[in-house]
Amino acid sequence: MATFNVGLKRDGPGLLLRDILKDGDPQITAAINVIAAVGPDVLLLTNFDFDLNLVALTAFTDVLTNAGTSYSHLFALPPNSGLATGLDLNADGRLATPDDAQGYGKFAGYGGMALLSRHPISVEQVQDFSQLLWRDVPGSSLPKVSAVAGMPDILDVQRLSSKGHWDVPIVLPDGTTLRLLAFHASTPAFGGANDRNIWRNRDEVSFWQKYLDGQISGTAPNNHFVIVGDANLDPNDGQGIRSTISDLINHPLIQDPKPTSAGAVQAAVVQRGVNRSHSGKPALDTADWRDTNGPGNLRVDYVLPSTDFHVLDAGVFWPASDDPNFGMLSDRDPKSSWHGLVWVDLTW
After folding, report:
1. 105 vs 85: CA distance, rounded Å
2. C-alpha 252: how far from its chain's center?
């Protein structure tokens, strides 16, 4: 089981497919090599552009197959990112900006989520919570965003999910159904007036806690589930209401495998900057951001299984300089943020 923020989002629709098909794009090659090196049975990709009929995703998996890693089952839904609203959602006095979409995005489908699986996906039983209005979330933080809290037209439109929240059943070889709870939360940075993104990130992350506790309409699991995705929130460092992810990690139905990497430890030492003031363990970091005028390296990507699973192993693909795979890091796109693939090996 794994999650990987691949950063495969482009400036317009169809451009990701173009880059996959032309072969040789260094960012795509790096992503393919990392996935092939780890080879998870189930993989959630975040920041992967969505298109109708999953054309780009199919082309991407074809390249993966050629690299020796095959997935028979693909799943994705249109994300909220880039979905136009016609309203000034961030109250900056301008319309039709990426911030005025349901989730930040330059076009509909921008930086969505996609699921690759070697096991069948029960598509007809998927529960999609992506259309849930932010105001309707129990304990919603939306009233704290005073710039928009008094605007009924926005309250009637603004969804909670910046990308999506999915409950996806996957049928394992022994007939057991695994429930994959997938999401990609908004960054707690930026967002304009009244820390809008901080409060949205808080509610997107805490959604799963409320779901498991029966506060959200739907059929929540009490076992055989894994929360997976990019929370954009570190329990100890960086921006955002950090207690939110800590509360989720410490939920009584959830265990934290604490995946680590040697590369993250080395990076914190070599890159220095703000990393020197971090209180969290650098081995747990999953994302490599700017160390000067930035948040530094943080733990933001998670694979959190229910307590009935037995964790055999866990890690983050972030090789240190003495690792034979270290050269793969040289192919990453320096213009975009970089995340390691987070994986957990599970059994009953």
Report:
1. 12
2. 22
pLDDT greater than 90 at residue 189: no
3-state class of 310 per DSSP?
A: strand
Q: In whole angstroms, what is the distance from residue 220 CA to residue 64 CA?
A: 33
Residues 6+ apart with CB under 8 A from 66: none
Number of domains in the chain: 1
Residue 146, burial from CB neighbour count under 10 angstroms (0-12, 13-18, 19+): exposed
Query: What average pLDDT does the structure give for the chain?
Result: 94
Which tokens hold the place of 306?
């229910």
**pLDDT value for 97:** 94
Q: Left if phi > 0, otherwise alpha if psi is -120 to 50, otherwise beta: which for 163?
A: alpha
Domain of 48?
A: 2-347
Q: Are 240 and 198 in contact (CB under 8 A)?
A: yes
- Confidence bin at 309 (pLDDT 50/70/90): very high
CATH number, domain containing residue 259: 3.60.10.10
